[in-house]
Amino acid sequence: MNALLPLVLALATPSVSADVLPTKEVLTLRAAKSIADAAEAEAARRGATVVIAVVDDAGHLLVLHRLDDTQVASVEVGIAKARTAAIFRRPSKVFEDQVKNGRISALALPGAAALQGGIPIVHRGRVIGAIGVSGNTPQEDEDIAKVGAVALSDQ
């Protein structure tokens, strides 16, 4: 009977065809490092002291660079910006703009950091992760993040 158990279980388990399960491309550690490196090079070019965080599409941290002399508080802020861009699939600035325009209820959205500097990483039309930069002005943080976000398409 023990030898038949796997066969019985296989026959009793409904099968799912491959066309029901789409293929999902993911952000690899190697790609995340390249993205962070591109953003770091841009920060160095500008003389910026920032934190660079790269997350996967669920907002989980893959890479963190804290450049020399960057304030410690920027670590959590950079991660929050990246996570916001990943899980909402849009720049974190969208939420900052909503708050600026009077929609303060945007502050209550779970996982949303209403701070400019988080940019989704898009590959073949799908968000596969995000980059968040924190430490300088909001615009400079976003500009550095954008350099990193497009680095994937340059490879």
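Next protein, fold it too.
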Amino acid sequence: MPHAAKNIFRWVVGPALLLCSGLVAAQSSEWTVTAKNKTELSRASETIELSLQQLAPLDQPDLTRIHVATSSGEELLCQAVDTDYDAYHKPDIVIFQADFQPEETKTFTVRVGEKQTYRTEQFRAYGRFVRERFDDFAWENDRIAHRTYGKGLETWEGEPLSSSTIDVWSKRTPRMVINDWYLSDDYHEDHGEGADFYSAGLTRGCGGNGLWADGRCWATVNQICR
């Protein structure tokens, strides 16, 4: 299973809008899932989740071998994920994504195959500690990237900085860029893929924590490693 910090999918935040009807037998090694957009809105890259219990009729405990295809036979990118963090890191759900028009219903085929292997260009989310600058942490999906400051930055002689800010890196590409941008060390300039355009500094940035009291903002210390 890909490490959680390298999650294949861009996670969808918001109320569940898809109704999974369950598994219906198609043949001994193949099953179908029906999902419906219950809203009058278009839903792009909506995440569908299938649990270990739902997949039990396939009689395959290794969820990394589960494959999902559209009704026309096109195989979709899917991932087995460990959500209960058991001692063996055993996946207990399978997730995949699809686009839905308003009130659209789609049917997917689920089968057992070879263990999933992923190519670099398929990853849609990634994150890591930024050892290039102490213990900052950076993460991204296929739309945007962020960074937050680590504890080590608070006592750095070169530029000590304590801030709960969430820094924003604007992207113009769906590919993962964190490693390449840090490697070139020129991510404040846009070379066609976007850049770190904002000086977050002591601000809250995009989502940093702070408490407003006595006419001022009382910010937390650096978020990571606390």
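About the second fold: The two ends are 28 Å apart (CA to CA).
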